[in-house]
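Reopening closed ticket. The problem is back. First fold of the pair:
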Amino acid sequence: MTQQRVIAITGATGFVGTAVIRRLAEAGWHARALTRREQPESDRVTWVNGSLDDPASLIEICDGADCILHIAGIVNAPSAADFEAGNVTGTANVIAAAKAAGVGRFIHVSSLSAKQPKLSLYGASKMRGERLVTTSLLDWTIVRPPGIYGPGDTEMLDVFRLAAKGVALLPPRGKISVIHVDDLARLLVALLPVHEDAATQIYEPDDGRPGGWTHSGFARAIGWGMGKRVSALHAPRPLLLLAGYGDRLLRGSKAKLTPDRARYLAHRDWTVDPLRRPPPALWQPLIGTREGLRDTARWYRANGWMK
Protein backbone atom coordinates (compact mmCIF):
# COMPACT_ATOMS: atom_id res chain seq x y z
CA MET A 1 0.00 0.00 0.00
CA THR A 2 1.45 3.36 -1.07
CA GLN A 3 1.94 5.80 1.81
CA GLN A 4 0.03 9.06 1.36
CA ARG A 5 2.19 12.07 0.67
CA VAL A 6 1.85 14.90 3.19
CA ILE A 7 2.44 18.59 2.55
CA ALA A 8 2.72 21.17 5.32
CA ILE A 9 1.22 24.45 4.17
CA THR A 10 0.92 27.97 5.54
CA GLY A 11 -1.48 30.51 4.07
CA ALA A 12 -3.92 27.75 3.08
CA THR A 13 -7.01 29.86 3.83
CA GLY A 14 -5.97 32.80 1.63
CA PHE A 15 -6.62 33.51 -2.04
CA VAL A 16 -3.63 31.56 -3.36
CA GLY A 17 -3.75 28.92 -0.63
CA THR A 18 -7.37 28.03 -1.37
CA ALA A 19 -6.49 27.34 -5.03
CA VAL A 20 -3.47 25.30 -3.94
CA ILE A 21 -5.56 23.17 -1.55
CA ARG A 22 -7.85 22.22 -4.47
CA ARG A 23 -4.86 21.27 -6.63
CA LEU A 24 -3.22 19.29 -3.83
CA ALA A 25 -6.33 17.17 -3.43
CA GLU A 26 -6.42 16.48 -7.17
CA ALA A 27 -2.75 15.47 -7.11
CA GLY A 28 -3.24 13.03 -4.24
CA TRP A 29 -1.48 15.01 -1.50
CA HIS A 30 -2.78 15.29 2.04
CA ALA A 31 -2.37 18.81 3.40
CA ARG A 32 -1.59 19.63 7.02
CA ALA A 33 -2.54 23.29 7.04
CA LEU A 34 -2.23 26.18 9.45
CA THR A 35 -5.37 28.16 10.28
CA ARG A 36 -6.44 30.87 12.73
CA ARG A 37 -10.15 29.93 12.67
CA GLU A 38 -12.37 26.85 12.42
CA GLN A 39 -12.47 25.21 8.99
CA PRO A 40 -14.83 22.62 7.49
CA GLU A 41 -13.65 19.05 7.95
CA SER A 42 -12.05 17.40 4.93
CA ASP A 43 -10.55 14.02 4.10
CA ARG A 44 -7.73 15.79 2.29
CA VAL A 45 -6.84 18.48 4.86
CA THR A 46 -5.87 18.30 8.51
CA TRP A 47 -6.35 21.78 9.95
CA VAL A 48 -4.01 22.88 12.74
CA ASN A 49 -4.92 25.94 14.80
CA GLY A 50 -1.96 28.29 15.01
CA SER A 51 0.00 31.07 13.37
CA LEU A 52 3.45 32.03 12.13
CA ASP A 53 4.36 33.29 15.61
CA ASP A 54 3.33 30.01 17.27
CA PRO A 55 6.32 27.60 16.97
CA ALA A 56 4.41 24.65 18.43
CA SER A 57 1.74 24.82 15.71
CA LEU A 58 4.40 25.13 13.01
CA ILE A 59 6.18 22.02 14.26
CA GLU A 60 2.82 20.22 14.34
CA ILE A 61 2.11 20.88 10.66
CA CYS A 62 5.69 19.95 9.71
CA ASP A 63 5.84 16.68 11.66
CA GLY A 64 6.01 13.81 9.16
CA ALA A 65 5.58 16.08 6.13
CA ASP A 66 7.37 15.39 2.86
CA CYS A 67 7.58 19.06 1.94
CA ILE A 68 6.68 22.51 3.23
CA LEU A 69 4.87 25.10 1.13
CA HIS A 70 5.14 28.52 2.76
CA ILE A 71 2.56 30.88 1.25
CA ALA A 72 1.54 32.97 4.27
CA GLY A 73 2.80 36.51 4.55
CA ILE A 74 1.81 40.14 5.02
CA VAL A 75 0.89 42.10 1.89
CA ASN A 76 -0.49 45.21 3.56
CA ALA A 77 0.67 46.61 6.90
CA PRO A 78 0.91 49.98 8.66
CA SER A 79 4.58 49.75 9.63
CA ALA A 80 7.95 48.19 8.86
CA ALA A 81 7.72 46.21 12.10
CA ASP A 82 4.50 44.55 10.94
CA PHE A 83 6.04 43.57 7.60
CA GLU A 84 9.10 42.29 9.45
CA ALA A 85 6.99 40.16 11.79
CA GLY A 86 4.93 38.59 9.00
CA ASN A 87 7.43 38.18 6.18
CA VAL A 88 10.78 37.82 7.93
CA THR A 89 10.29 36.52 11.47
CA GLY A 90 7.39 34.35 10.26
CA THR A 91 9.57 32.82 7.56
CA ALA A 92 12.37 32.22 10.06
CA ASN A 93 9.92 30.40 12.32
CA VAL A 94 8.74 28.14 9.49
CA ILE A 95 12.33 27.32 8.54
CA ALA A 96 13.13 26.47 12.16
CA ALA A 97 10.08 24.19 12.34
CA ALA A 98 11.12 22.46 9.12
CA LYS A 99 14.55 21.74 10.52
CA ALA A 100 13.18 20.57 13.86
CA ALA A 101 10.82 18.18 12.07
CA GLY A 102 13.48 16.96 9.65
CA VAL A 103 11.70 18.19 6.51
CA GLY A 104 14.18 19.00 3.78
CA ARG A 105 12.07 20.33 0.88
CA PHE A 106 10.94 23.96 1.21
CA ILE A 107 8.87 25.90 -1.35
CA HIS A 108 8.71 29.60 -0.55
CA VAL A 109 6.22 32.00 -2.15
CA SER A 110 7.81 35.43 -2.35
CA SER A 111 6.96 38.35 -4.65
CA LEU A 112 8.39 40.27 -7.60
CA SER A 113 8.67 43.16 -5.16
CA ALA A 114 11.76 41.43 -3.71
CA LYS A 115 13.63 42.44 -6.88
CA GLN A 116 13.38 46.11 -5.86
CA PRO A 117 13.64 46.08 -2.05
CA LYS A 118 14.39 49.81 -1.79
CA LEU A 119 11.04 50.79 -3.27
CA SER A 120 8.77 49.60 -0.47
CA LEU A 121 8.71 48.19 3.03
CA TYR A 122 6.84 45.20 1.62
CA GLY A 123 9.53 44.49 -0.98
CA ALA A 124 12.32 44.90 1.56
CA SER A 125 10.66 42.40 3.90
CA LYS A 126 10.13 39.88 1.10
CA MET A 127 13.79 40.12 0.12
CA ARG A 128 14.89 39.51 3.70
CA GLY A 129 12.59 36.51 3.83
CA GLU A 130 14.19 35.17 0.65
CA ARG A 131 17.66 35.52 2.14
CA LEU A 132 16.63 33.40 5.11
CA VAL A 133 15.46 30.68 2.72
CA THR A 134 18.53 30.75 0.49
CA THR A 135 20.86 30.40 3.50
CA SER A 136 18.74 27.76 5.27
CA LEU A 137 20.65 24.72 3.91
CA LEU A 138 17.26 23.21 2.97
CA ASP A 139 16.34 21.97 -0.51
CA TRP A 140 14.56 25.18 -1.46
CA THR A 141 12.78 26.73 -4.41
CA ILE A 142 11.52 30.32 -4.36
CA VAL A 143 8.60 31.49 -6.51
CA ARG A 144 8.11 35.20 -7.16
CA PRO A 145 4.59 35.67 -8.54
CA PRO A 146 3.71 38.87 -10.37
CA GLY A 147 0.20 40.35 -10.10
CA ILE A 148 -2.17 37.49 -9.25
CA TYR A 149 -5.80 37.61 -10.35
CA GLY A 150 -8.73 35.22 -10.49
CA PRO A 151 -12.09 34.40 -8.90
CA GLY A 152 -12.11 35.33 -5.23
CA ASP A 153 -9.32 37.92 -5.45
CA THR A 154 -9.82 41.09 -3.43
CA GLU A 155 -6.64 42.93 -4.43
CA MET A 156 -7.77 43.73 -8.00
CA LEU A 157 -11.47 44.01 -7.16
CA ASP A 158 -11.43 47.82 -7.13
CA VAL A 159 -9.94 47.84 -10.65
CA PHE A 160 -12.79 45.64 -11.91
CA ARG A 161 -15.39 47.81 -10.17
CA LEU A 162 -14.06 50.93 -11.85
CA ALA A 163 -13.81 49.15 -15.20
CA ALA A 164 -17.50 48.32 -14.89
CA LYS A 165 -18.06 52.10 -14.97
CA GLY A 166 -15.79 52.43 -18.01
CA VAL A 167 -12.83 53.96 -16.14
CA ALA A 168 -9.37 52.75 -15.12
CA LEU A 169 -7.30 54.82 -12.68
CA LEU A 170 -3.74 53.64 -13.27
CA PRO A 171 -0.20 54.24 -12.00
CA PRO A 172 2.30 56.15 -14.14
CA ARG A 173 2.87 54.48 -17.52
CA GLY A 174 4.72 51.20 -17.15
CA LYS A 175 4.61 47.44 -17.63
CA ILE A 176 3.44 44.53 -15.49
CA SER A 177 3.31 40.76 -15.62
CA VAL A 178 0.29 38.85 -14.32
CA ILE A 179 -0.73 35.26 -13.61
CA HIS A 180 -4.03 33.48 -12.98
CA VAL A 181 -4.25 32.02 -9.48
CA ASP A 182 -4.95 28.52 -10.80
CA ASP A 183 -1.85 28.57 -13.02
CA LEU A 184 0.21 29.63 -10.00
CA ALA A 185 -1.34 26.85 -7.90
CA ARG A 186 -0.43 24.27 -10.55
CA LEU A 187 3.19 25.43 -10.48
CA LEU A 188 3.44 25.26 -6.70
CA VAL A 189 2.07 21.71 -6.65
CA ALA A 190 4.39 20.70 -9.50
CA LEU A 191 7.37 21.85 -7.41
CA LEU A 192 6.57 19.77 -4.34
CA PRO A 193 8.42 16.59 -5.32
CA VAL A 194 12.21 16.84 -5.38
CA HIS A 195 13.37 18.27 -8.73
CA GLU A 196 17.10 18.52 -9.36
CA ASP A 197 16.56 21.34 -11.85
CA ALA A 198 14.33 23.26 -9.41
CA ALA A 199 16.60 22.99 -6.37
CA THR A 200 18.03 26.35 -5.23
CA GLN A 201 16.18 28.17 -8.02
CA ILE A 202 14.20 31.40 -8.01
CA TYR A 203 11.32 31.25 -10.49
CA GLU A 204 9.28 34.15 -11.85
CA PRO A 205 6.17 32.71 -13.53
CA ASP A 206 3.62 34.67 -15.53
CA ASP A 207 0.94 34.25 -18.19
CA GLY A 208 3.56 33.81 -20.92
CA ARG A 209 2.95 37.15 -22.60
CA PRO A 210 6.31 38.38 -24.01
CA GLY A 211 7.28 41.67 -22.39
CA GLY A 212 4.25 41.67 -20.12
CA TRP A 213 1.34 44.11 -20.31
CA THR A 214 1.29 47.87 -20.34
CA HIS A 215 -0.89 49.23 -17.54
CA SER A 216 -3.39 50.59 -20.07
CA GLY A 217 -3.33 47.35 -22.10
CA PHE A 218 -4.17 45.31 -19.03
CA ALA A 219 -6.95 47.73 -18.08
CA ARG A 220 -8.43 47.37 -21.57
CA ALA A 221 -8.20 43.58 -21.24
CA ILE A 222 -10.23 43.80 -18.02
CA GLY A 223 -12.73 45.97 -19.88
CA TRP A 224 -12.92 43.37 -22.66
CA GLY A 225 -13.61 40.71 -20.06
CA MET A 226 -16.48 42.80 -18.73
CA GLY A 227 -17.84 43.84 -22.11
CA LYS A 228 -16.87 47.46 -21.46
CA ARG A 229 -14.77 50.04 -23.28
CA VAL A 230 -12.39 51.43 -20.65
CA SER A 231 -10.81 54.89 -20.61
CA ALA A 232 -7.38 54.71 -18.94
CA LEU A 233 -6.24 57.60 -16.73
CA HIS A 234 -2.63 57.52 -15.53
CA ALA A 235 -1.94 59.21 -12.19
CA PRO A 236 1.39 61.06 -11.81
CA ARG A 237 3.58 59.63 -9.07
CA PRO A 238 2.92 62.46 -6.54
CA LEU A 239 -0.85 62.08 -7.02
CA LEU A 240 -0.59 58.30 -6.61
CA LEU A 241 1.27 58.74 -3.32
CA LEU A 242 -1.33 61.26 -2.13
CA ALA A 243 -4.10 58.79 -3.03
CA GLY A 244 -2.32 56.18 -0.91
CA TYR A 245 -2.59 58.41 2.15
CA GLY A 246 -6.20 59.22 1.30
CA ASP A 247 -7.24 55.57 1.01
CA ARG A 248 -5.58 54.83 4.35
CA LEU A 249 -7.57 57.66 5.97
CA LEU A 250 -10.86 56.57 4.38
CA ARG A 251 -10.67 52.78 4.75
CA GLY A 252 -8.12 52.34 7.53
CA SER A 253 -6.85 48.77 7.76
CA LYS A 254 -9.03 47.81 4.75
CA ALA A 255 -7.24 50.24 2.43
CA LYS A 256 -5.88 48.64 -0.75
CA LEU A 257 -3.82 51.62 -1.93
CA THR A 258 -1.52 52.41 1.00
CA PRO A 259 1.44 54.82 0.79
CA ASP A 260 3.80 51.82 0.74
CA ARG A 261 1.90 50.18 -2.10
CA ALA A 262 1.74 53.46 -3.99
CA ARG A 263 5.55 53.66 -3.95
CA TYR A 264 5.66 50.09 -5.23
CA LEU A 265 3.09 50.67 -7.99
CA ALA A 266 4.86 53.81 -9.23
CA HIS A 267 7.78 51.69 -10.46
CA ARG A 268 7.69 51.45 -14.25
CA ASP A 269 8.64 47.82 -14.79
CA TRP A 270 7.11 44.96 -12.85
CA THR A 271 7.60 42.29 -15.50
CA VAL A 272 9.22 38.92 -14.87
CA ASP A 273 12.73 38.06 -15.98
CA PRO A 274 12.29 35.66 -18.95
CA LEU A 275 15.39 33.77 -17.83
CA ARG A 276 13.70 33.02 -14.50
CA ARG A 277 10.55 31.51 -15.98
CA PRO A 278 10.09 27.88 -14.89
CA PRO A 279 11.32 25.36 -17.48
CA PRO A 280 8.52 24.38 -19.90
CA ALA A 281 9.00 20.70 -19.08
CA LEU A 282 8.04 21.49 -15.49
CA TRP A 283 5.21 23.97 -16.00
CA GLN A 284 3.57 26.26 -18.52
CA PRO A 285 0.62 28.66 -18.10
CA LEU A 286 -2.64 27.29 -19.46
CA ILE A 287 -5.11 30.13 -18.90
CA GLY A 288 -5.23 32.91 -21.46
CA THR A 289 -5.35 36.23 -19.63
CA ARG A 290 -8.29 37.75 -21.48
CA GLU A 291 -10.37 34.62 -20.89
CA GLY A 292 -9.19 34.47 -17.26
CA LEU A 293 -10.22 38.08 -16.71
CA ARG A 294 -13.62 37.41 -18.27
CA ASP A 295 -14.18 34.42 -15.99
CA THR A 296 -13.06 36.48 -12.98
CA ALA A 297 -15.55 39.23 -13.86
CA ARG A 298 -18.31 36.63 -14.17
CA TRP A 299 -17.41 35.25 -10.73
CA TYR A 300 -17.48 38.71 -9.15
CA ARG A 301 -20.93 39.37 -10.63
CA ALA A 302 -22.32 35.95 -9.70
CA ASN A 303 -21.17 36.40 -6.09
CA GLY A 304 -22.44 39.97 -5.71
CA TRP A 305 -19.01 41.60 -5.49
CA MET A 306 -19.53 44.19 -8.26
CA LYS A 307 -21.07 46.87 -6.07
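Second fold of the pair, where the issue appears:
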Amino acid sequence: MTTRSRDAATVVLARDSASGGIEVWMLKRIGTLNFAPHAHVFPGGAVDASDSELFPLDGDSLINVASVMDVEPLKANQLMAAAVRETFEESGIVLASNRHPTTWSEQDRQDLLLGRTSIAQLLNREQAHVHSQDLIPWAWWLTPDYVPFRFDTWFFFAPVREDVEPRHVLEGEAVEARWWKVDEALESNRAGQIILLWPTLRVLLDLNQWSSVAEAVSHRPVRLEQQSG
Protein backbone atom coordinates (compact mmCIF):
# COMPACT_ATOMS: atom_id res chain seq x y z
CA MET A 1 0.00 0.00 0.00
CA THR A 2 1.34 3.42 -0.95
CA THR A 3 2.06 5.70 2.01
CA ARG A 4 0.33 9.08 1.91
CA SER A 5 2.60 12.10 1.65
CA ARG A 6 2.44 15.45 3.46
CA ASP A 7 2.96 18.77 1.69
CA ALA A 8 6.13 20.49 2.87
CA ALA A 9 8.39 23.43 2.08
CA THR A 10 12.12 23.89 2.50
CA VAL A 11 14.24 26.99 1.98
CA VAL A 12 17.75 27.27 0.56
CA LEU A 13 19.16 30.32 2.34
CA ALA A 14 22.05 31.39 0.10
CA ARG A 15 24.66 34.12 -0.13
CA ASP A 16 27.90 34.79 -1.98
CA SER A 17 30.97 33.35 -0.27
CA ALA A 18 33.86 35.70 0.52
CA SER A 19 36.20 33.22 -1.19
CA GLY A 20 34.01 32.88 -4.28
CA GLY A 21 31.03 30.72 -5.12
CA ILE A 22 27.80 30.25 -3.19
CA GLU A 23 27.30 29.18 0.39
CA VAL A 24 24.11 27.81 1.93
CA TRP A 25 22.77 27.44 5.47
CA MET A 26 22.31 23.80 6.50
CA LEU A 27 21.27 22.05 9.71
CA LYS A 28 22.37 18.62 10.92
CA ARG A 29 19.29 16.75 12.08
CA ILE A 30 19.11 15.03 15.46
CA GLY A 31 19.84 11.31 15.31
CA THR A 32 16.63 10.30 17.11
CA LEU A 33 14.28 11.72 14.46
CA ASN A 34 12.13 9.27 12.49
CA PHE A 35 12.81 11.02 9.17
CA ALA A 36 16.36 11.61 7.90
CA PRO A 37 18.28 11.31 11.20
CA HIS A 38 21.81 12.80 11.09
CA ALA A 39 21.22 14.27 7.60
CA HIS A 40 22.28 17.78 6.67
CA VAL A 41 19.25 19.64 5.36
CA PHE A 42 17.90 23.09 4.61
CA PRO A 43 15.38 24.72 7.00
CA GLY A 44 11.84 23.51 6.36
CA GLY A 45 8.94 21.35 7.38
CA ALA A 46 5.36 20.29 6.77
CA VAL A 47 2.49 22.66 5.99
CA ASP A 48 0.33 23.61 9.01
CA ALA A 49 -3.35 24.57 9.06
CA SER A 50 -2.43 28.20 9.84
CA ASP A 51 -0.48 28.43 6.58
CA SER A 52 -3.80 28.62 4.69
CA GLU A 53 -4.31 32.23 5.81
CA LEU A 54 -3.66 34.58 2.90
CA PHE A 55 -0.44 36.52 3.41
CA PRO A 56 0.78 39.62 1.54
CA LEU A 57 2.98 38.88 -1.47
CA ASP A 58 4.83 41.60 -3.35
CA GLY A 59 6.60 41.54 -6.70
CA ASP A 60 4.96 38.87 -8.82
CA SER A 61 1.33 37.81 -8.41
CA LEU A 62 0.37 34.69 -6.48
CA ILE A 63 -1.19 33.32 -9.67
CA ASN A 64 2.10 33.63 -11.55
CA VAL A 65 4.13 32.10 -8.71
CA ALA A 66 1.61 29.25 -8.49
CA SER A 67 2.04 28.64 -12.21
CA VAL A 68 5.81 28.25 -11.78
CA MET A 69 5.18 25.84 -8.88
CA ASP A 70 2.57 23.96 -10.96
CA VAL A 71 -0.05 24.20 -8.20
CA GLU A 72 -3.26 26.12 -7.51
CA PRO A 73 -2.84 29.61 -5.96
CA LEU A 74 -4.22 28.53 -2.57
CA LYS A 75 -1.67 25.74 -2.35
CA ALA A 76 1.11 28.09 -3.42
CA ASN A 77 0.08 30.42 -0.60
CA GLN A 78 0.19 27.53 1.91
CA LEU A 79 3.62 26.39 0.77
CA MET A 80 5.12 29.87 0.76
CA ALA A 81 3.67 30.58 4.20
CA ALA A 82 5.12 27.31 5.47
CA ALA A 83 8.50 28.25 3.97
CA VAL A 84 8.54 31.63 5.73
CA ARG A 85 7.28 30.15 9.02
CA GLU A 86 9.71 27.23 9.12
CA THR A 87 12.65 29.46 8.19
CA PHE A 88 11.87 31.77 11.10
CA GLU A 89 11.22 28.91 13.51
CA GLU A 90 14.46 27.11 12.61
CA SER A 91 16.90 29.94 11.88
CA GLY A 92 15.40 33.21 13.16
CA ILE A 93 15.44 34.67 9.64
CA VAL A 94 12.37 36.65 8.54
CA LEU A 95 11.90 36.45 4.76
CA ALA A 96 9.80 39.61 4.68
CA SER A 97 10.18 43.36 4.90
CA ASN A 98 8.32 46.67 4.82
CA ARG A 99 10.35 49.83 4.29
CA HIS A 100 13.07 48.32 6.44
CA PRO A 101 14.11 44.71 7.13
CA THR A 102 11.61 43.06 9.46
CA THR A 103 12.56 41.33 12.70
CA TRP A 104 10.39 39.26 15.01
CA SER A 105 11.01 38.41 18.64
CA GLU A 106 11.67 35.12 20.38
CA GLN A 107 8.14 35.44 21.79
CA ASP A 108 6.81 35.61 18.23
CA ARG A 109 8.72 32.42 17.42
CA GLN A 110 7.29 30.64 20.45
CA ASP A 111 3.78 31.83 19.55
CA LEU A 112 4.19 30.34 16.08
CA LEU A 113 5.42 27.04 17.47
CA LEU A 114 2.49 26.85 19.89
CA GLY A 115 -0.10 27.87 17.29
CA ARG A 116 -0.98 31.14 19.00
CA THR A 117 -0.33 33.17 15.86
CA SER A 118 0.33 32.65 12.15
CA ILE A 119 2.75 33.98 9.58
CA ALA A 120 -0.04 36.03 8.00
CA GLN A 121 -0.89 37.64 11.34
CA LEU A 122 2.74 38.54 12.03
CA LEU A 123 3.17 40.02 8.56
CA ASN A 124 -0.02 42.05 8.83
CA ARG A 125 0.97 43.29 12.29
CA GLU A 126 4.20 44.71 10.86
CA GLN A 127 2.57 45.81 7.58
CA ALA A 128 5.25 43.69 5.95
CA HIS A 129 5.21 41.56 2.83
CA VAL A 130 7.06 38.66 1.25
CA HIS A 131 8.67 39.61 -2.03
CA SER A 132 8.65 37.03 -4.80
CA GLN A 133 12.37 37.67 -5.44
CA ASP A 134 13.14 36.67 -1.83
CA LEU A 135 11.40 33.29 -2.08
CA ILE A 136 11.97 31.74 -5.50
CA PRO A 137 10.41 28.36 -6.40
CA TRP A 138 13.40 26.16 -7.17
CA ALA A 139 12.63 22.41 -7.12
CA TRP A 140 9.89 19.91 -6.29
CA TRP A 141 10.65 16.51 -4.81
CA LEU A 142 8.44 13.65 -3.64
CA THR A 143 9.82 11.09 -1.18
CA PRO A 144 9.76 7.59 -2.77
CA ASP A 145 6.77 5.38 -1.87
CA TYR A 146 8.94 2.80 -0.09
CA VAL A 147 9.84 5.38 2.60
CA PRO A 148 7.45 5.26 5.61
CA PHE A 149 7.49 9.05 6.11
CA ARG A 150 6.74 10.71 2.77
CA PHE A 151 6.85 14.42 1.97
CA ASP A 152 5.81 16.23 -1.20
CA THR A 153 8.31 19.07 -0.86
CA TRP A 154 8.74 22.35 -2.71
CA PHE A 155 12.20 23.91 -2.45
CA PHE A 156 12.55 27.70 -2.43
CA PHE A 157 15.73 29.67 -3.11
CA ALA A 158 16.15 32.67 -0.78
CA PRO A 159 19.07 35.10 -1.26
CA VAL A 160 20.29 36.43 2.11
CA ARG A 161 21.83 39.86 2.57
CA GLU A 162 25.31 40.15 4.10
CA ASP A 163 23.96 41.92 7.20
CA VAL A 164 21.48 39.12 8.00
CA GLU A 165 22.79 36.15 9.97
CA PRO A 166 20.82 32.97 10.71
CA ARG A 167 21.27 31.30 14.09
CA HIS A 168 21.24 27.77 15.42
CA VAL A 169 17.98 27.29 17.34
CA LEU A 170 19.11 25.11 20.24
CA GLU A 171 15.75 23.55 21.10
CA GLY A 172 14.95 22.65 17.50
CA GLU A 173 15.51 19.46 15.51
CA ALA A 174 19.18 20.14 14.72
CA VAL A 175 22.36 19.51 16.67
CA GLU A 176 24.26 22.10 14.66
CA ALA A 177 23.71 24.66 11.91
CA ARG A 178 26.14 26.75 9.87
CA TRP A 179 27.02 28.14 6.47
CA TRP A 180 28.50 25.64 4.01
CA LYS A 181 30.21 26.48 0.76
CA VAL A 182 28.44 24.42 -1.87
CA ASP A 183 31.61 22.71 -3.08
CA GLU A 184 32.67 22.06 0.53
CA ALA A 185 29.36 20.33 1.29
CA LEU A 186 29.59 18.23 -1.87
CA GLU A 187 33.14 17.14 -1.04
CA SER A 188 32.18 16.32 2.58
CA ASN A 189 29.32 14.20 1.28
CA ARG A 190 31.63 12.37 -1.15
CA ALA A 191 34.04 11.69 1.71
CA GLY A 192 31.26 10.28 3.88
CA GLN A 193 31.67 13.03 6.46
CA ILE A 194 28.08 14.26 6.15
CA ILE A 195 24.81 12.75 4.92
CA LEU A 196 22.88 14.50 2.16
CA LEU A 197 19.48 13.33 1.02
CA TRP A 198 19.22 12.94 -2.74
CA PRO A 199 17.08 16.08 -3.27
CA THR A 200 19.49 18.17 -1.17
CA LEU A 201 22.44 16.78 -3.12
CA ARG A 202 20.75 17.58 -6.43
CA VAL A 203 20.07 21.18 -5.37
CA LEU A 204 23.71 21.62 -4.33
CA LEU A 205 24.96 20.11 -7.60
CA ASP A 206 22.69 22.55 -9.41
CA LEU A 207 24.03 25.55 -7.46
CA ASN A 208 27.63 24.43 -7.96
CA GLN A 209 27.32 25.37 -11.63
CA TRP A 210 27.24 29.08 -10.81
CA SER A 211 29.73 31.48 -9.27
CA SER A 212 27.26 33.78 -7.50
CA VAL A 213 23.74 34.02 -6.14
CA ALA A 214 22.84 36.50 -8.86
CA GLU A 215 23.97 34.08 -11.55
CA ALA A 216 21.94 31.28 -9.95
CA VAL A 217 18.84 33.50 -9.81
CA SER A 218 19.26 34.36 -13.48
CA HIS A 219 18.82 30.62 -14.18
CA ARG A 220 15.73 30.22 -12.00
CA PRO A 221 13.27 27.55 -13.19
CA VAL A 222 10.32 28.74 -15.26
CA ARG A 223 8.17 25.77 -14.18
CA LEU A 224 8.81 23.06 -11.64
CA GLU A 225 8.43 19.36 -12.40
CA GLN A 226 7.93 16.82 -9.63
CA GLN A 227 10.86 14.46 -9.15
CA SER A 228 11.13 11.44 -6.87
CA GLY A 229 14.01 10.76 -4.56
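Update: turned out to be a display glitch only; the data is intact. The domain at 5-228 is CATH 3.90.79.10 (Nucleoside Triphosphate Pyrophosphohydrolase). The chain has a mean pLDDT of 92. Please close again.
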